[in-house]
Hints:
The chain is an alpha/beta fold. The protein has helices at residues 33-46, 54-58, 65-76, 79-100, 111-120, 133-142, 166-175, 189-198; strands at 11-13, 16-18, 20-23, 30-31, 106-107, 124-128, 151-153, 182-186, 202-205, 222-224. It contains eight helices and ten strands. Strands 7-6-3-8-9-10 form a six-stranded parallel sheet. A two-stranded antiparallel ribbon has the order 1-2. A two-stranded antiparallel sheet has the order 4-5. The model has no long low-confidence stretch (mean pLDDT 95).
Amino acid sequence: MDARTATPLVVTIAGHAVVAAIVDLDGTMVDTLGDLHAAANATMRLLKLPDLSREDVEHRIGKGSEYLVLQCLRLHLPDDQAQALYPQAIELYLQEYTQLNGQFADPFPGVPEGVAALKQAGLRLACATNKPTELARELLQMKGLLQYFEIVNGGDAFPRKKPDPMPLLETCKQLGLPPAQVLMIGDSQNDALAARAAGCPVALVTYGYNHGEPIRTANADAFADRIGDLLAR
């Protein structure tokens, strides 16, 4: 009997009875800032542009590679020049990032244990990230996390990315569950906005990126210092 036909196990988190969870990747499960910073600076050097600080990159994480690259170009160039250089820049960035994927990244404290605890509690797990799907799967495998997820959807899986609700709605369809029964676990306002628009309850971890803004100002049902802490809520 597979997960679709078995009687679902219901877990109550933050006052919501849920059967599954969709978990973000960058900033929620894995600290990828080192990879992203290295790839962005490698790209800037190839384009003969100045290096970026870690904060420059951190504050632009969360809306996909395309957004990150264009915003980084805009730090150094007027908008028209940034737009003109963008096609070359995104191609270079993806080449660099593919080579660096996972080299300067590690799971946040408590993530392997927390994800395992969610699975053991009976939740079905999916990952929805704005990172390209192949790179997301590779990173999860590298860090020992892929085994917990029955679905991995990256930013290239659907026409629109978070904070648009489409990735969550489509992932819920793949799970065969209504959004109200699927918890979104993320680290940023983008995740909260996508979840609210999709009709999913949402919990946010407190250690992620969130564009440099305080995470507790986001509209979420719960906040947690570690993913596993959500099971006590």
